[in-house]
Design a protein that fits this description.
The chain has a domain of 228 residues. By secondary structure, it is of the alpha+beta class. It contains 12 helices and 6 strands. This is DUF1385 domain-containing protein.
Length: 355
């Protein structure tokens, strides 16, 4: 699977419930491990937006587009993982039955949309409104522009770190962080050119320079520098105007941050290593060391997203591939001969020998 053609583009992904999603330039593959030990994989081809609209692949613009697609695929894959695990087939609670009666068959999509809206509101409140409020209070107290801007940026970073630490204390999330580590290790292994096996992948670091956690830290760092300059040039005292200004600048910050992330990730200079060090250390909060079964899930996703489903693979009625081992996802894998056929073949051979 480690061909030159595959090394021409980056493979990345994210952890999902009991599994890993991997994304190539033209497909996503989500693999989860079910309670019975089998792995199921959903392969979803897509046409990149930059192929439909070349301007979306231009520097800085592509960072804004990438942020939007990350959010879109992130929510979709989380929903996919719950379906693939069979969680949606469980007996609904009384509250869920009441919602279904009131809202109809589309209740799942409505609940998901509500969850997304709530998450966006909380994110904006925590990472934009709260720091902007702190800056406005400090400015009213007479603090210098540089002082209140730096403190506002520090508040953002502290909230982010605190949020990650809190999430890591939840057992279910901590397990997802292990799958996050498995995703990074398998990507490292693929990029190294070694055979994709759990043993090989386990030798690599669970930290990766292209991780979304590093991207978040770069976004916050760039926003501090950008708002420091803008606050000096265009001082804004009104809280609501400041809040809207920060919100409007988010796409620009994301576009610049993406270019910085890609530049640091693909450079081995001393300067790049120093600059990406904080982002790597931040990943210690969002990753944990995975076990072998988690690495298998990540490897299956890499193999399938790069090569598609092998010819022999069995599928569920939904079209998801079924794997009992990561080996079954490798290109050119030949399933072992069934025991009955093997016995008949041996019997035929012995009969021929007697004749």
């Amino acid at each position: 699977m480690n061909t030159e053609q595959e090394k021409k583009f980056d493979v990345g992904g994210q952890a999902v419930m009991e599994g890993v999603m991997m994304r190539s330039p033209n497909a996503t593959a989500v693999t989860v491990r079910r309670p019975d030990g089998t792995m199921v994989t959903k392969l979803t081809p897509f046409v990149p937006l930059k192929e439909k609209h070349p301007w979306m692949g231009k520097p800085f613009i592509r960072g804004i587009i990438n942020m939007g697609t990350m959010l879109y695929y992130g929510m979709n894959t989380l929903e996919d993982s719950t379906k693939m695990l069979g969680m949606l087939d469980e007996e609904p609670t009384k509250f869920e039955k009441w919602l279904a009666r009131k809202l109809g068959k589309g209740v799942d999509k409505i609940v998901m949309a509500f969850a997304i809206i709530l998450a966006v509101i909380l994110s904006v409140a925590l990472f934009i409104a709260l720091p902007a409020g702190v800056e406005s209070l400090l400015r009213s107290a007479g603090m210098s522009t540089i002082g209140y801007t730096l403190i506002g940026g520090l508040v953002k970073i502290l909230i982010l770190i605190g949020y990650m630490i809190f999430c890591g204390c939840v057992p279910e999330v901590r397990r997802t962080f292990q799958y996050h580590g498995a995703e990074h290790k398998s990507v490292h292994c693929h990029e190294s050119g070694l055979s994709l096996t759990p043993a090989n992948a386990q030798t690599f670091s669970r930290l990766h320079p292209r991780c979304g956690t590093a991207f978040l830290l770069i976004v916050f760092s760039i926003s501090i520098l950008l708002f420091l300059v803008l606050n000096v040039l265009v001082p804004i005292s009104n809280f609501f105007v400041r809040f809207l200004f920060h919100l409007a600048m988010l796409p620009i910050v994301a576009g610049v941050s993406y270019e910085v992330l890609m530049g640091l990730a693909h450079s081995n200079s001393k300067g790049a290593c120093i600059l990406r060090w904080p982002g790597l250390q931040m990943q210690r909060l969002t990753t944990r060391e995975p076990d072998e079964s988690m690495l298998e899930c990540a490897i299956v996703s890499v193999n399938v997203v790069l090569n598609g489903f092998p010819e022999h693979v069995k599928k569920t009625p939904e079209g998801w591939g079924i794997f009992h081992s990561y080996l079954e996802s490798e290109p050119g894998y030949v399933p072992p001969e069934p025991e009955e056929e093997k016995s008949e073949s041996e019997a035929d051979t012995s009969d021929d020998a007697e004749v």
